[in-house]
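Thread: quick sanity check before group meeting

JM: Hey all, I'm pulling together slides for Thursday and realized we never actually wrote out the predicted structure for the chain we discussed last week. Dropping the sequence here so it's in one place. If anyone has concerns about the input, flag it before I start.
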Amino acid sequence: MKRLLAAAWLALATPAAAQQATPLFAADTPIHLTITAPLQQLMRNRESHQQLPGTLAADDGQLLPVTLKLRGITRRTAEVCEFAPLRIDFTGKPPANSLFAGQNKLKLVTHCRNTPAFQQHLLLEYAAYRMFNQLGPRSFRVRLAQIDYRDSAGRPSLTRAGFLIEDLGDVARRNGTRETRAGERIPVADLSPLEAARYGLFQHMIANHDWSMRAGPAGDNCCHNAELIGPLGPGSVIPLPYDFDFSGLVGAPYATPPDVLGISDVRQRLYRGYCLHNGAALAAAREMRAQRPQMLGVLAQVPGLAPATQARATAFLERFFADIATDDGVAKTVKRCIG
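JM (edit): ok, ran it. Output follows.
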């Protein structure tokens, strides 16, 4: 009987078979896109939740009907970004032979401001996603793009780098599980210790303090700059980080650390993982040490990242790897955990 119960529990606990990534996120090579829409009208109405029609085209020549709307919080404001991030919704099912086959909606991270410095900030944020990809498949894939923005009202076009973020449902399916159905807050005990420790150490590596892996802002669903996959239950929920523009690695000029942390600069590291996961943090740090060449190597693979930017980012990350070079170093790093 015990064996039968154990087998039944294992069957329930084992996720469904993992799937391949959709065509858009099955490769890392940059793509070229053209977006045509009333973009100036969209950017003028920052407080509105309007969706405006447009078209999206890739180099395969297929013109896909979409709607566009603004997204984000800080970057949505005109005081911070001249060009806010976008959400793209496909109004019809993309053809099976399209690069966008299987897509329903996508987040697009845009350039924010029309300066070379902000292009570097965007490329560093893209690199952060790619570095987290090196730690395993439970992560958002991204696709870098050179984008021609054409205003349908006839205003001058604009070409800038941007990147698309894999949809949460696709991440879950790719990993043989499902999106977590959570409210405003989940118990710390529901988080997978290893996945949560990996999340916390990675955020520490890039010096990002703008997140919570278990609670959302008051009145909103969980979480803040984190998405969750896996069923609710002890040790079952996998947190996925996203939105790294407030990190010290990216160094956006508008980024400031939360006042409650008592630090004055986003480039200051302060570990914010949970004490409950300190044992798992040792295992996560060993993974990161093993993947250090691949993670740092991402910087050399990002098209358009200036050598000076790459050098500064490498030096910044190397200080983290020096801190976790030994298990004793990891223990010192995580001692300021959240109880």
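AS: nice. The first strand starts at residue 31 and ends at 37. The CA atoms of residues 215 and 329 lie 29 Å apart.
JM: adding both to the slides.
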